[in-house]
Amino acid sequence: MTRKKPEAVLVPADERLTGRAVLGATIGNILEFYDFGTYSFFAIQIGQTFFPASDPFASLMLSLATFGAGFVTRPIGAIVLGSYSDRAGRRPAMTASFAMMSAAVLLLAVTPSYETIGIAAPLLVFARLVQGFALGGEVGPTTAYLMETAPAERRGLAVSFQPASQQIAATAGALVGEILSLTMTSEALSAYGWRIALLLGAATLPFGLWLRSALPETLHRPDTPAPGVQPVSRQPAARRIMSLGFVILASCTIITYVTGYMTTYALNTLQVSAPLAFGATLICNTVGIAAALLGGWLADRAGRRHIMIWPQIAALLMTYPVFFWISESRSALALLGGLGALTMIGTIPYSAFYVSMAEGLPKNIRGGAFATTYAFAIAIFGGTAQPIVTWLIHLTGSALAPAWYMLVASAAGLCAMLLIPETAPLKIRSAALR
């Protein structure tokens, strides 16, 4: 007879494992978001490869519509893999999502062009649907895992690695795009350069699977809340948090995807060089990494609500002046400096929100509820953000169209943030003592 090897479970005494666990979850998250976001950076080149048209606008819109197809299955993946993480564990759900994402991006990278096989849209759409399903089930379990590995006084910083890892992935994608744009001709970039970027992500499959399969499980780890903290256990309270979270995530999604659109915006609307266009995205994402971690660190010290509300107000006031400066000067200083400053201020609130929402949800539904809320917000507003901005610019002829869309999103997010309760353990304990 053989004895089954016991499941590795992270327990309170294993805080030395927290760093390794966070690294495992973060690296896997980086690899998935790199694969998903690279399509956005090369939307123009992919459109020319698979959707040739006499009108460049029509080709770009078809490419962005296929990009949007990946958002259709995000809610399905969130429900399936998110609930799976609440039943079977965070680790198996994260491993499954990573495997599916890598297979889908490999299919996307090797699909022949329109000139070779004619209309390739079915293969592209299928790959994007699988990517969306996988990524829909990634964020909820990963966020829950990051929170559950961390001690109460460092949850904000630990969870901030979720948005930070997305920024790292976007930075890696922008860096690859920058290098390729500097070392390849525009013809080569359109023909096969974007495939190189995708294959770099697919090459990480063995390492990512090994890394995640070795993570300790947190689902069955005993909760050790800070004194004075009462977890949210009533469904009405959880539903309220999910409703407010949906609005904030919708706001964050619009701002993130409009910012991610800056490469295409700079090339198509501002008519700047490809290196400068990719450089703007690279600067924004690099700044976003520091801002995301700073937001989590501040949320552990000043509370979740303060770090959500005040930077959000500042970003709201900055948006129009920054875009006006960019559209009028179209200079490197405006594009790099203006967007960099806006990204720095605008990213801070969402790290505090991530941990606030994770703390507000009961553990038995945390992975699925966070994933589902996130996925529906992304599916509705992420998949439509870039086509809407492209259409608004085309309709109005104004380079300020992205600013107006971001302003509406920021204002809606601020209203919801004002209604979010404080969940920081130290803040709650201080209030209880008073």
In short:
With 434 residues, the chain is an all-alpha fold. It has helices spanning 18-41, 43-50, 56-69, 74-87, 90-110, 114-117, 121-136, 139-149, 155-183, 186-202, 205-213, 235-260, 262-268, 274-302, 304-329, 332-360, 363-396, 401-419, 425-433.
Q: Keywords for this structure?
A:
disordered N terminus; single chain; mainly alpha; 434 residues; 80% helix
Describe the structure.
The protein is built from 19 helices and no strands. With 434 residues, it is mostly helical. Helix 14 runs antiparallel to helix 15. The chain is globular. The chain starts with 17 loop residues before the first helix and ends with a helix.
Return the string of H and E elements.
HHHHHHHHHHHHHHHHHHH
CA radius of gyration is: 21 Å
* Strand runs, count: 0
The helicity comes to over 70%
How many helix segments?
Answer: 19
Main sheet makeup? none
**Uncertain ranges:** 1-14, 226-236
Mean pLDDT: 80
Backbone structural class: mainly alpha
The termini sit apart by 60 Å
The proportion of strand residues reads: under 5%
Shape: globular
